[in-house]
Structure formats: C-alpha cells, structure tokens
Amino acid sequence: MQTDWNHVKEFLKEVMDEKSYSLWVKPLQFIDSGEGTICVGCPNKFSRNWVQENYSSLFHSQLSKAGLSDHKLILKVLPNRELNKLLPYGGNGNGKQLTIPNMPKKIRVGEKYLKARFTFDKFVVGECNEFAYLVSQALADDSNFSYSSLFLLAKTGLGKSHLIQAIGNSILQKKPTAKVLYITTEDFTNEMIYALKNNQIEQFKNKYRKVCDVLLLEELHFLGGKEKTQIELGYTLDSLFNDEKRVIFTSPLKPEEMPGMKKMLISRLASGVMTSIEKPEFHTRLKILKQKAIERKISLPEDVAHFLAENVTQDIRQLEGSLDSLNASSFFLKKKMNIDLATEIVKQLIPAKHLARVEDIQKIVCKYFKIDIEALKSKSRKKIISYPRKIAIYLSRKYTDKSLEFIGRSFNRNHSTVLYDEEKIKKNIKIDSSIRREVEFLCLQIEDRIA
Description:
The chain is of the alpha/beta class. The protein has helices at 2-15, 18-25, 45-65, 80-86, 130-141, 160-174, 185-197, 201-211, 227-242, 263-269, 282-295, 302-311, 316-332, 339-349, 358-369, 373-376, 383-399, 404-410, 415-431, 433-450; strands at residues 29-34, 37-42, 72-77, 106-109, 112-115, 149-154, 180-184, 214-218, 246-251, 273-277. Helix 5 packs parallel to helix 6, helix 15 (358-369) packs antiparallel against helix 17 and helix 18 (404-410) packs across helix 19 (415-431).
C-alpha cells in the first residue's frame, strides 16, 4: 500500500505548484493501511488541519485515479520521535524549528504581536468606515486629536482589528522606542490573576500604568461580570489619562450594552471618541476584493469581482474566503475563473435561502402604496412613484438572487441607479422610523409568501 501512496504523491506533484506541494504534501508520510483506509502522518496539527480543509477533494480524486476510490484517507499528527525518523532532512541539527521564508515580519509588543501587514495604506476606505479610518490616523499621527481614547465599535470581520493594529504600527514606525502594549481583555485578566497569585501585582500595575505609552485593548466586551478586572482596568485608565497617554479599545458592543459592566468603567470607556464601522456597501466590497486580489497576485476578472461584491455581503473575512476559494478551485480544478465558477463558490459559502420573484415584490409594493405596475416601472420622478420604486428595488436586492442588470431591466433602470436606490433606502431605514416600519411590514409580506 505504501507504493500506492507514493503513486498518489506523484500524481499530486504533477497537478500542484512546486511550492504548495513541497510545503504541504511532500512532508506527508505513509504510516499504515487497514480495511478501506490509508493512514498518513503529518508533521503538526496545523499541517493536518490545512490539508484536511484545503486538499481533501484533491486527495480523493487522486486516490480514485490510483484505483483506491473505496479507501478513506486518515491524517494523524506524528510524534516528534517518529517525525525525526521519517523526515531526516526536516531538522537543522539543533532541535529548533526551521523558519519558513518570506513570512510577514511581526513586531513584539506587550503580550501579543502586531501584524506588520495591518497598516493604514492597506485598509480599504469606504462610506462604512471613513470616519473610523480618519480618526485612527489622526490619533496615530498625534495631530488634531485632543482626546485620550478611541473606541472602535464593529462586529466581527469588519476591520476593527486592522485599524487598531495599524495605529500601533504607525506609532512604532514614527517612534520605535514607544512602549505600545497590544492585548485582549482576556489576556489582561489572565495576566492580572497570575500576578496576584505570584505576588507580582506591583510589577503588573507598573507595566500598564507607568511604562505603557499606548494601550491597545481588544475585545472589551469580555470584561462583563469580571468585577476585579474592571476595577483594576479603571485605575489603569485613570493613570494613563492623567499622564496624557493614549488608549484604543475595540468591541462589537457599546459600553452601556455590555452585560455586567460597572458604571464607573462605562463612563471612562465612553469619555473619548467612539466611532463605528458598518458592513461594507457594494463599492467598498468591490474595492476590498480588488485590493486583496492584488495582494495575493490573483488576476480577477472585472465581471467576477462585481458578482462576488454583489453576492458576498456579510463581512470582509467572507469576501477574502470567497476570493481564496475561487482562486484555489480555479487552480486545482484547472477551470477558468469566470461567473460560473464564482456561482459555485458562492453557493458553497452562503447558505441557500428561499427567494422571491421580482414581479411578486413589485405586486406587493404596488398593492401597499396603491399604484399600478406601469407607474412603478415608469420614468416618473414624483415622490409618490419614486419612493415606492426605491423600496421595491431595495427589496428585490434583499430577497432575490438576480443581478443588478436584471433588476435594473425589471424597473427600466440602469446598474448605477439600482445601487443608488438600494443604498438610499438602507440609509433612510437607519434614520427614519416611519420608513423602517414600512419596510419591515413589506418584508413580512414577502417572507410570508416565500416561506
């Protein structure tokens, strides 16, 4: 069976690029085989997880070519002693791990690393994050920013970690001797507990109150219910603010929304500038995709970029995942990067949902606003017509999988007008309660029909 496995590796070597094969497949070693199984050893957990997540289908297809379609591949992490036997060229003679070339440099500050790739010039700016970006830059430059703290409010995957680390990287670039501490509240809590147990609390206090110049504190909402940590952080903030030091927080929740948060700490957290980062709108998503494609050296066709930006709307991580999946599928399956392949990727990433028809949405909107379909599709700019039309377009984008072009044709509008009307209603929902109630009612009508 080991001979069969070697044949599989030879097949993989032919279809994979040299670097990927050398890094992920070459280190895999045959261990044994059983009834319908082949057991293969990996150098570490990371390698095993990466191979499972990214190459499972490729391994299966190559096993089939080798006449082993009924066999299941089992990946195990090799113990160090076995790894040394199987990988005679894998060490450097002194027991230390070899470094992987061309990995991004990390800057050690405090209890965590700042990632060097998180800089202001690599942050894609749009309507959803422009204010947060400008304020963060001003704080890092120490210009036109007279506040002691900045609170970056955003849900997961929208760029708050990128911005807070960009602040730290920018400060250290201008002043390498600055003491920038980057840490999560969970690590802050654990470090304080360790200091208490080991009679090192004075060193802990000195580190964060006196030595620190800039404190970057992530995931603030995890402090909820941790009374002693909240008290210590409150004293730490008082000391830093009194010494005119800078503090930057991140959290998906406002201070007053965090459960179990003491009032005295809420007031301190809310004393500086608070700015939110929203989900990226279409044009920002498009810019993000193009930026990520450039960074990854991916040749992304314009129509495919538009398709992904239209359909992958959750957050930046989902956008990155769609781009990486598309690139991997194109490479390993030898398929052209086009709309068809992108559609397959989107179906895998985004759960299937019940969809409405554009014409049904038009009928529901027309019935509610007491206008006819011809008026809705007309060129009229009267508010009595244009307002229902905007809402119908917004709902069509929300409840159908049709392209911008298709929806535009359904309303006798062009691509850019559809986008404008959609964004207009999105903004109005946030600031006008009457519009929000109307849209919510119409959403219920549509959801009842497609349920």
